[in-house]
Design brief:
2 copies of one chain form a homodimer. Chain A is α/β, with parallel strands linked by helices. Chains A and B meet through helix 5, helix 6 and strand 17 of A and helix 5, helix 6 and strand 17 of B.
Chain lengths: 679, 679
């Protein structure tokens, strides 16, 4: 809050970039004003013990200001004396100028190690850094639904044409909307509504995607359809919801169709997870009596719930939602639309439909006005769904000359290779591990999810940051990648994912289901028990990353290409705020090619869905992308299985795929061994 | 039934034309073989007493064969002796060759009168004579719904496109149907249906009228929509129902869309008549709480009932009905579609919509498969409805150069003037009199309705023919015209419609509600009471014909035209089999211009509705006709009221409008007076 002057000052500070130097590591990093110090350390690869996720509870992340200053309060864990001496809790401190920070010896990792790593050209990247996100280009705001005020003249004896004719004429004259198909519902409502509202109404018109694809529809005129008529001028309120229906989560954004602004963003679990972790088990369930109906109703409940959340956060009204654009994998969209999924699972794997589908949202049970339209992205094949089509649209892969590998990391791993001229795709079942599914303390990237992780390779003490800096509740995808990579580099686990024995830390222990590493002691967490990662969890993660990597190799080979031919790699998936590219490479999830080629998209499926909401011309591109894509079926592919088996290793059994990672791990092992010896 | 030879012989006889000469009148007429002798006499204007409607019960219509022979059985009313002498009942005799027939003196009218009348160039015309009916030309069978068999190849690993893509491709390759919009219902049904029916299905595709009107739809491709998918090959069964929803009756035809044949024809009362006789009282009723809903449901019940009747008569199944085309006046179609009718009645008389409307038939409550489409003809104005647009389409008025006056006689009298270049229209409330409504013994043109009537001007005995030659039950429209004209010519009523006093017949009497003429004594009728026409009935009929005629004059004058400018007059309306043009002129219902210019169309609204069922290209003409028509509002027109008052006279207060009728009535009065004196 604060005064205007204060806000201006705060804003100015945040717009600046400052250099933070860490002692004794001698590492410096440039960050935005206002960056949390723990985040800055994590980004710089500097270890500071931090056991409570950044909530200021454990008091372990004490640092000392050597030069400059930090915006940091005095807290319970920090007495006045310490505060006067320049001691601060890193997790409670924000960068407000150039500064030098000293980390107590007990809390830092081996000196020189991080510096060496940074020299190797590796650094963390923020997934949410929108300035670097690859997005579709060359489109203007032309929403799929427009709301326009229409002012009519009252009829007279000399001008007593029908209400419909009067309205259509005004719509054309005042807004240039021609040949608008008027739904019967609107025609019926017209006589009373026009008179009750004194001949001032608001028309909601949508383009009909079924018609936009037709050759005859390519003329200048758009295939408008009047779906709603309201009294008065409500044209200022025109919303849409973009939805990514994933196997594990349902992510949604509320979009203002008049401004193009994203008003809110919410994620909930897909209620179907109670009926199976992946699409195959869902299809099996759908074959049971009443099964398909059950799955349909629970996913609709999840959508309704996420929309309610969006409404609550923005104090918006559902009646202003003109459209919902849904992207999801083939099974998800078939289930949502009540379409048979059985033949998706049975060879030769045939989906019911592979075109943009349109329904009234209420027809499938979505709790919106009966004029709200539901647009469902087309699938390409049984295992290459509308989510990937949406991602390719949203990321603009189909517009660029560069040869791009697009990887969507979800319960279903989907891969696209190509550029503006051609697109090939493949899909592999990763399981929900990287979304926290099948992981003992896995969770979605929600408040309290460990999203950043670092380990002191000598003491094996963790540095962890949670979403929202709240008490740790579990681990989300980006956290899992970091944990796996850090445990591997510190030698806590071996390349097969097995725990080393006899390590000098009580955090590595024999648990109920085998060996495990304790990230958070019960006292610092929010769950009443220790938060751990187990050997079983690690197996699941290795299988998931192995499937994805094997898919990439198979797809490349089928086109006689190698990773070196790639000009860009786009990583999509509903991860948390941070994803660590180098750590993803270290565990063999991402290919070992120059980091400059990588781009993080975030939830590409959601971005594509939002794109069509904001730009109706993109509907035509959606159809074109669907038709461009050639599907490479992995399930029948013998070489895929071989490649999958070879990938069940950190980073991979074949060192040729990960030359840089191999060199790093070797060098790292040497430094760690030295540091341990020195201690 | 009979043997093939007999049927061939019967057929040959019927194909021949024969001359029937009547004595003592010395009138001859050429008729088709097989014509009923009473019909032949009626057509020739020869009076034969016939009191029972032609059922052979009263035995009054005895005639004697002078030359030739008749196909005529010996009946109860005719003993062997009389039969041997050549005496026959006219109503039971069919013409099978040239013949001369003598009518007993007691049974015939004044000699020479009829001959004079025939010399004046007048003759009866059959309304149902299809060879002379003016119909839209230049169209070929191209039904609004097509059913085509589609044979698919089962998918394989090498060809696993979606079911929808597979189907659409086959539809294009096998039938040239491109860019077909597939309804969600069909997409959902597809996976299971294709496999259950071993990849052989039948597709029902319809043109989308909402799209056919759009400029972009005028290309070569038609806007097809897949509305139904069935297993196997059912393409042989493709039906439509054309419906005229009138204020008083609902008429329907069952049409085979594959052959263009009319399979059956049925008429029922519009159940709404219980809630008001005309559109105004219906609209008033609709304003009451639940009123509109009630009216909607009863008219739908009538439609459902008439469809059931069509199904029963033809042993057809409703599931084969692809489409229903409905034409009706503006109020009827608004009520049917649940649209507000209030502003139709209130100045400035604005209907809700004036374009072709499309609904799923089930949505309005019509009991048909949920794929069946309901096409509703567009109205032009509040009192110029889709029935008139349909009639102009069906009659081809919009195609011809001749200046045509089109008169649709129903509860609402609708008039169109114009040709292929322009169309002007007007409507006036006639009330249901000519449909039998508000007439003491009025009825629809059903079995037992008096449809033909002649009076012996000396004895005042009637000659009457009923629909189906069954016991008289009441009087239908064509009967009412004849009765009025005959009573006028015989001097039973005066030009104001008042009964003459002191006539020498017990058939003219003071009844409960004033003077009346007894057509049928209770003993010969089917109702247990005498069937009469009252002075009140006659007043109603005069008001009805007066309104129509005043409308015609007003419309002509508004365009600076007179009746003499007309090149054609088309009479439409759901009359019985016969309508007598000369008699219609005599009472001032039809203008007094040469009979050669008249054409009887029958139910033009129904014919137009049938035409669009059979020829989808006509949908475009429907829209064009609606747009071409200029409405001349009569209700605000001061001169219309004057003209209406002037027309409340038989034939009219202004003799200039009916010069020939005037001369005839004068001459007739002289002959009748002489004949009565001679007796």
């Amino acid at each position: 809050m604060g005064s205007r002057r204060e806000r201006v000052r705060d804003f100015s500070k945040k717009m600046m970039k400052y250099t933070v130097s860490f002692k004794p590591n001698d590492v410096a990093i440039r960050v935005d004003g206002g960056t949390n110090l723990l985040d800055a350390a994590l980004a710089a690869g500097v270890h500071i013990d931090a056991a409570c996720g950044g909530q200021g509870a454990c008091g372990k992340c004490r640092v000392k200001i050597k030069e400059g200053s930090l915006d940091s309060p005095q807290t319970q864990n920090l007495d006045g004396e310490a505060y006067r001496q320049g001691i601060r809790l890193a997790c409670r401190s924000s960068v407000i100028g150039d500064c030098t920070i000293e980390i107590p010896a007990a809390s830092t990792g081996p000196r020189g190690l991080v510096a060496q790593i940074l020299e190797m050209g590796r650094s963390d990247r923020r997934i949410a850094d929108l300035r670097n996100v690859p997005l579709a280009e060359g489109w203007q705001l032309s929403p799929m639904a427009v709301k326009v005020p229409v002012r009519l003249r009252a009829p007279t004896a000399a001008d007593n044409v029908s209400d419909l004719t009067r309205f259509s004429t005004a719509l054309r004259q005042q807004h240039g909307l021609q040949d608008v198909v008027i739904e019967m519902r609107c025609i019926k409502a017209m006589p009373q509504l026009l008179r009750d509202s004194d001949w001032q109404v608001t028309a909601t018109c949508m383009v009909d995607p079924l018609k936009i694809f037709e050759p005859s529809g390519t003329g200048e005129r758009e295939p408008w359809r009047l779906v709603r008529l309201e009294g008065g001028d409500t044209s200022g309120r025109n919303l849409a919801v973009a939805v990514d229906v994933g196997t594990t989560t349902v992510c949604a954004q509320l979009v203002d169709l008049n401004t193009g602004n994203v008003l809110a963003d919410k994620t909930v679990y897909n209620g179907q997870i109670a009926y199976g972790a992946d699409v195959i088990t869902r299809i099996v369930y759908a074959q049971k009596p009443g099964g398909a109906k059950k799955l349909q109703s629970v996913v609709v409940s999840s959508i309704n719930y996420v929309i309610d959340e969006l409404m609550e956060e923005t104090a918006s009204s559902k009646k202003d939602i003109s459209a919902v654009a849904v992207a999801g994998n083939t099974t998800m969209t078939h289930l949502l639309l009540n379409m048979e999924t059985r033949y998706i699972r049975e060879a030769p794997y045939v989906p019911a439909a592979s075109c943009m589908l349109l329904e009234n949202a209420v027809n499938v049970g979505i709790d919106l006005p009966d004029c709200s339209q539901l647009y469902v992205f087309p699938s390409v094949a049984s295992y290459v769904g509308g989510d990937i089509v949406s991602g390719i649209l949203g990321s603009g892969v189909f517009q660029k000359e560069e040869l791009t590998l697009y990887m969507d990391i979800g319960t279903n791993g989907e891969i696209v290779l190509g550029n503006r001229d051609w697109l090939a795709c493949a899909a592999c079942s990763m399981g929900p591990a990287f979304e926290g599914g099948g992981i003992k303390h896995g969770m979605r990237a929600d408040q309290g999810a460990v999203e950043g992780f670092h380990i002191n390779p000598v003491t094996l003490e963790p540095m962890l940051v949670t979403v929202g800096r709240t008490k740790p509740k579990g681990i989300c995808g980006s956290g899992l990648i970091s944990i796996l990579a850090e445990l591997l580099a510190a030698g806590v686990i071996d390349p097969k994912g097995k725990f080393a024995r006899g390590l000098p830390s009580e955090r590595v222990r024999q648990g109920r289901y085998g060996y495990e590493y304790v990230l958070v002691w019960a006292e610092h967490g929010d769950t009443g028990e220790d938060i751990v990662i187990t050997e079983v969890d690690i197996e699941n993660l290795i299988r998931a990353k192995g499937a994805l990597f094997a898919g990439c190799v198979t797809l490349l080979e089928s086109l006689s290409l190698t990773f070196d031919d790639l000009e860009r790699v786009i990583i999509a998936g509903a991860f948390g705020r941070y994803i660590n590219l180098e750590k993803g490479q270290r565990i063999g999830l991402f290919p070992d090619i120059p980091v400059e080629k990588f781009h993080f998209l975030g939830n590409g499926s959601l971005i594509g869905a939002r794109t069509v909401c904001l730009c109706r011309d993109m509907l035509r591109e959606v159809e074109r992308i669907g038709k461009m894509m050639t599907n490479v079926e992995l399930s029948d592919n013998a070489s895929f299985m071989d490649k999958y088996m070879a990938a069940l290793f950190l980073p991979h059994t074949e060192t040729r795929f990960f030359p840089n990672v191999g060199r790093y791990l070797q060098e790292n092992a040497r430094v760690v061994a030295e540091a341990r010896k020195a201690r």
